[in-house]
Amino acid sequence: MAPVFLLLSALGGFISVALGAFAAHGLRERLEPPLLAVFQTGVQYQMYHALALLGVALWLRMAGPSVWLKAAGWLFVLGVLLFSGSLYALALGGPRWLGPVTPLGGLCFLLGWAALAMCAIRMFKAT
Fold this sequence. Notes:
The chain is mainly alpha-helical. 85% of the residues lie in helices and 0% in strands. The protein has one domain.
């Protein structure tokens, strides 16, 4: 599972940088400042969670299989798709029904961080 999360982390980071550059150079003149800020929020959270996914991949590699780490990784991936993806779409004029999708992505992020905490707690108990 670690190689999958490592690959998804690398792709997520790559796409985040590409979309950030696109926003800075291609969207600055086309979007109103509030919509550009929405897009940039998506980019920031995607990058944060690409790095978090890198941490999950490395932790899995060091600690071995863990249900909590796997859950955290997949929750981060789902969070990026729902949270950042809906923000990108909304900023670019996507359908308004995507608005309620964004908090679901945020919930996935929160659950992913909680899963990491559970993994850490279990590690402390094991030592």
